[in-house]
Every structure is written in C-alpha cells, then in structure tokens.
Amino acid sequence: MPTVTALRRVAATRYVTPLREGGSMPGLVEADDDGLYVVKFRGAGQGPRALAAEIVAGELARALGLPVPEQVLADIDPALGRAEPDPEIQELVAASAGTNLGVDFLPGALPYAPGAGCDPTPELAADVVWLDAFTTNVDRTAQNPNLLVWHGRMWLIDHGAALYLQHAGLRPLEQARRPFPQIAEHVLLPCAGSIAEADARLAPLVDVALLEEIVGLVPVDWLAGADPADYVEYLARRLDAPRGFVEEAERARGA
Ligand SMILES: Nc1ncnc2c1ncn2[C@@H]1O[C@H](COP(=O)(O)OP(=O)(O)OP(=O)(O)O)[C@@H](O)[C@H]1O
Ligand SMILES: [Mg+2]
Prior knowledge:
Elements: E1 9-18, E2 27-31, E3 36-40, H1 48-63, E4 71-76, H2 87-94, E5 98-104, E6 110-111, H3 122-134, E7 147-150, E8 153-156, H4 172-175, H5 195-202, H6 208-215, H7 228-239, H8 244-253
Parallel strand pairs: 1-4
Antiparallel strand pairs: 1-2, 2-3, 3-5, 4-5, 6-7, 7-8
Helix pairs in contact: 3-5, 6-7
The protein binds adenosine-5'-triphosphate (ATP) and magnesium ion.
C-alpha cells in the first residue's frame, strides 16, 4: 500500500507577485525555508473547500505515484499584503490570515499543450484520466489543462475543482454513484491508453485506510463545517465495484 506523509508547514516571508492567469489569484510567495511556493489563498472566492479538494486529490495522485509538486501548509501573516499596491491582493491576503495551501513552484514550467511534443505515455495519460474520473475533477480540459511541463516531464497541478459536489455538501449515499459525464472533456483522453488497465493498476492501491489518512491531512477549518468522514465515504463508495466511472471514461475514450 502507498504511504502518506504529513504536509510540511512553512511560514510565508514575502509576497512576490500574483499569478494572474489563475482564477483564484494565487500568489508567488517566499517562505522561511527559502522555498518559493504558489500559494492558493483560503480567502479566495472558491472558498476553503477548494483547498480541501487540492489536498485530497493532489495527495491521492502522489500516493498513486503521479507527478504532483510538493504541497505544504503555508502560514500567512496578514501584514504580508500591506505593501501590495493592488487593493484586491491586499484584501485577499488579509482574508487569508493563518493556514493556506503552498504548492512548490516549478520555475520555468510551461503549460501543457496537446501535441506539442511532450505528450505523456498512454499509460500515464490513462492514470490521470482515472484519477480525475475517480475524484470528479472537472478542471483538466483543453481550455484549462492544469498540467505543466517541467524538466521534460508532465506535472499535475490545481485540483481545486475536484469533488465539486462538496460545495453544496457531500451526500455520499445519494451522490457517490452519480454519472460524471464531464470526463468526456478531459484533455488527455485522446492520448490515453486503456482506462480499464489504469483501473487494474491503481484501484488496488486505494483502500479506506489510505483515504482516511489523506482526508486527515486537510486542516479541519478548510472543510467549513463538513464532516471529513463524508469525504472518505464518498470516495470509498465511488471505488466500490463495478466502478461506473471507469466504464464512463472508457466510453468517452471511444473504446
Ligand atoms: N507549482 C507551480 N509551478 C509553476 N507554475 C504554477 C504552479 N502552480 C500554478 N502555476 C501557474 O499558475 C497558474 C494558476 O494556478 P492554478 O491553476 O493552480 O490556479 P487557479 O486559480 O486554481 O486556476 P484556475 O483558473 O484554473 O481555477 C497555472 O496555470 C500555472 O501557470
Ligand atoms: Mg488552474
């Protein structure tokens, strides 16, 4: 079984610059370990549960061996934004005092573009489709691939839109087996190999204990009152055989 390690905690020391291409206005931030992180702010419009999705889907990806930059808990002092000329940034930083999500910054990474010569292997593409189908991630489309190419390798970022049903409250019994037709828009479907084979590789690696450990990494206040056990149950029920999301993804692939 895969192992899960606790997230490191860093303290932000300097707000460097906003990453304006991100809808949630993430910021490039320097921390007390001399690292540079892309900070996803708890006070952004998507709400703190988007950060919970980043941890759950991102750390699940890592546990399955998929390439995800390190994620850390980043402490933000509201004073950090005071020198920023943009009032929108000042407000965002002020509204995010305390624990936020830091993602290891990959300097010089380029956005993934289909057919640009850096396509993943059919197996890796299928594994990513499987992960996104399992976690109902709606944000891996051609318009918004949320994949970076860095040092010749594809990296997965931005899992904030996974588990999207959580925003109205997860109801595992009722929702876990619902269809997820959005998988047809996945940017890697055209280059993905068999999703059934990805399922055979990955599903045996996930059990309730692993899901509990991963959901346990999420700071409780990011769940905004939701019960962490519902996240575990929702994912566990999606994983019960036969897994409709695998068939759905295979159909979308045209297999
Ligand atoms: N770890 C990283 N290393 C380098 N660049 C990154 C990293 N994380 C994010 N970026 C850059 O910042 C952009 C915005 O990040 P991200 O997609 O996580 O934010 P978002 O606000 O959730 O975006 P979206 O508009 O997709 O909702 C990315 O498209 C990418 O260009
Ligand atoms: Mg994004």
